[in-house]
Amino acid sequence: MPIIRFPKDMKWGTATAAYQVEGAAFKDGRGLSIWDTFSHTPGKVKNGDNGDIACDSYHLYHEDIELLDRLGANVYRFSVSWPRIYPNGTGKLNPKGLQYYHNLVDRLVEKGIEPMLTLYHWDLPQALQDQGGWASRNTVDAFSQYAETIFREFNGKVKYWQTINEPLCAAFLSNYRGVHAPGYQDLQLAVDVSHHLVLAHGKAVKVFRELRIEGQIGTATNTTWREPFSNRIEDIEACRREIGHNIDWFLDPIFKGEYPQYLIDWFEKKGAKLHVEDGDMEIIQQPIDFIGVNYYSGNVTRFKENTGLLDIENIEIDYNHTHIGWPIYADGFYKVFQYLAQRYGKIPLFITENGACCMDELVNGKVDDQDRINYYKQHLTAVSRAIESGIPILGYLAWSLLDNFEWADGYGKRFGLVYVDFQTLERIQKESYTWYKKVIANGWIEI
Fold first, then answer.
1. In sequence order, what are the residues at sequence separation of 6 or more whose Cβ sits closer than 8 angstroms to the Cβ of residue 318?
2. Was 234 annotated as part of a binding site?
3. Looking at the domain assignment, is residue 447 inside a domain?
4. The total number of structural domains that make up the chain
5. Is residue 316 part of a domain?
6. Parent domain of 206
7. Is residue 214 a part of any domain in this protein?
8. Is the pTM of this model over 0.85?
9. Which tens digit of pLDDT belongs to each residue from 182-206?
10. 388 is catalytic
11. What is the DSSP secondary structure assignment for residue 402, as one 8-state letter?
12. Residues contacting 411, CB < 8 A, separation 6+
């Protein structure tokens, strides 16, 4: 059987997000986030689930770090809960919240695991939402202040930094489709929010550089791949819109100093105008050290008028699907790497999320998730193809360490290498955990 080998300096690990795993939503001075409000609103999250307890990693982080250590992980990506630091978004600092993250980071460092700290993974303080949320430029300023606090506190402890996770979701899923907090359905609002998120990223990076913070800083971007159903120009352009909506809209301003005109025109056609103030693009175009790549799925697609925001429909071509319903399309992962390299040059890439939702069943104390292992094999093969093609890839982080609160899907969708019993909070290593442990130890996979 073929052996796929990875560079000896490849970074390996896993990723989580604060609201999905921490719990302790009302403990030690933490303020409300928009996800607390959204998840407690009837009908917004499946089964009425919420993140009040989640995996209780706030109290059980020692167990989670032991799992990382036994896995052999050398990087752990986590996010800081903004309302745990500033309960009202600005103003009075919460020392107990800061202490939690110091405890977490110090323990990781003790174990030889490099922390990758994400500043924003969607849990905006509700107090800021009440004042306009990301639609207000005041929130951009509040984020800059929050970022400065975290930079100063953890300078020297954290090697990898990320500003904002998946701004596409925070802008469009949250404010156009309404399926994520705060749950609005307004395209103009979504476009406004998208710009303010990119601007907030730029301001944070600017502060990072001015303070001469140690380490490398980047962002974490949604990526997907859409292959045209035919060579008709309508199909090609539809795919370009879908790929670009995920990638170009949020990375072009950083690397090119402008938004892609074809998407500006498209949004105007749909009734939303981009508003950029003087000086914004200079702030946004701060140099970053790496692109965080989040990839789960792709598809073959074609143009279909009045279908969603982008006039596009997916055409299923005998794909297997994960339990959340997403097609398994590993070749799209490789094409995303090529696309990023061609569009933005040879900036290093760090795979910050990749994983599969599977229908995990605990049988006699074990979870045999061979389907997840197969997913990882396919996608790590795509990573190797990219590396062999000369694309600089720093590392790979599996999503996720733990089964957790899967946003609007609640606890019914499991992505973890570790099974979590949400009644007892017991952690049980899945077969994929054992498999991934061998990958990290060996530096290769067999396919």
1. none
2. no
3. no
4. 1
5. yes
6. 3-442
7. yes
8. yes
9. 999 999 999 999 999 999 999 999 9
10. no
11. B
12. 47, 49, 403, 404, 405, 422
